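Fold it.
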Amino acid sequence: MGLDILSSAEKSSAAAGMLLYVGLVVVIGLRHARRNHSTEHFLLGSRSLGPLVTAMSAEASDMSSWLLMGLPGLAYLTGLGSPAWVAIGLAAGTWLNWRFVAVRLRTYSHMAGNAITVPEFFANRFGDRHHVLLVLAAGTTAFFFTVYTSSGFAALGKLFHSLFGFDYTAMMVCGALVVVAYTVAGGFLAESTADLMQGSLMILSLVVVLAAGIVEAGGMGAAAAAMGRLPGYAALLASHERASGGAVQLSWLEIASSLSWGLGYFGMPHVLLRFMAIRDAAELGRSRRIAMAWVVVSLAAAVGIGVVGAAAVPWLLEGAGEAQQAGRSETVFIVMTQLLTRYSPAMAILVGVVLSGILAATMSTSDSQLLITSSAVAKDLYKGVLRRQASDKQVLWAARLTILVVAVIAGVLAADPDSSIFGIVSYAWAGFGAAFGPLMLFALFWPRTNLAGAIAGMTSGFLGVVVWKHWLAPRGGPWAVYELLPAFLFSAGCIVAASLLSAPPPARIQQEFRRAVATAR
């Protein structure tokens, strides 16, 4: 059943605004369709992005619907503590990634055989003649991005179900079809261009909804007073527990676990690919400043929406069992957006525009994930391993077919309307962060890293996340730490150990490393 804050006429106006936005995104995809004359253009835009598009595309594709639904939902459910530390970790990780990884990766990926995917860069960087590392990297990409994409499809279903009362599954499928349509048609440049618009809409939506929530709560003073009545809700070092109504102190391990979200950036293919796609490495400094401004404002507003929601819409979890609370809390952004109509029925159109921010967040990430997964399967596995004589046209069609297959699988995974967007994203984020993150840093900064170390690091990072998540974390206590942190450290240790215990990289690879470092300075 939908949330009956909007009248039927207001819902129609909101729907019109959202449909207009969807149509605009599809038009962007179709405009770029005729330009996709090669796999490099379809998958990387022929390295032609400017600094503004690079920054906005990287951040919009990074944050996803998690920013507008997952993070505010966590803040609404538990209070300021945990989500604030997550936001701090993400902001720090964003800056470190742009500052230290971006320029070297742009330079090195071009020198290393003009690699246009992250798996291809790893394979070329370490001289992977037998394609072992390439297959591992492509398989990891396909696995975790399929999971990640399902979170975006789930967000689409929740949006239309919560707002209009439409069937969750039907809306999830319709939203997925739109994303697939313009991604298959337009490729990398279409989704990067759309991301510029979508990133702008996301930050506007967050600021507008936060302001509406503060007004609804009666001002900042009233909102602070409402938070103060919930034990631990407004504290950085505590968390509010809904079941008992009390406060739980955050341990140093829980804080470190939240901060460790920032480590994930070093292994996120959809962010790293933007570094590789910019037209000139010298423009990355400007991109970094734009990206950081966007990230800081967006994260602060997202957390603010969640905690202000305790005063603006305190009734949101009424009637929800403990198992449904996480999923219900993730609709706080949607509910607070509808409050705009309290001031004027004409604001319903603005509601549609603001709620398009969720569409923007979902599309900007899902299209990137689908495209990168298709590149891993078509370019790295199909062309790189299975059929090395495949023509460029055949690879393009394989990429498009992969997008369709992955979308279907992701849709099946997103079929549960009570699934937590935050939970799905955190698992995929940990997977990429641990499997690719340490290896990316060692590949760019330690010349002694060799193929054995790369294989050991990627394998141990992947397995570390799976084992910790499903077998160790359920034990509770000191084991209940976010799986990214231990798996990241384990992967880094395996890279060092395996590299030192085996022969150094060939002279050719060491010389290429030195040239890349010298050029990137």
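Residues 8-383+390-520 form a domain with the Sodium/glucose cotransporter fold (CATH 1.20.1730.10).
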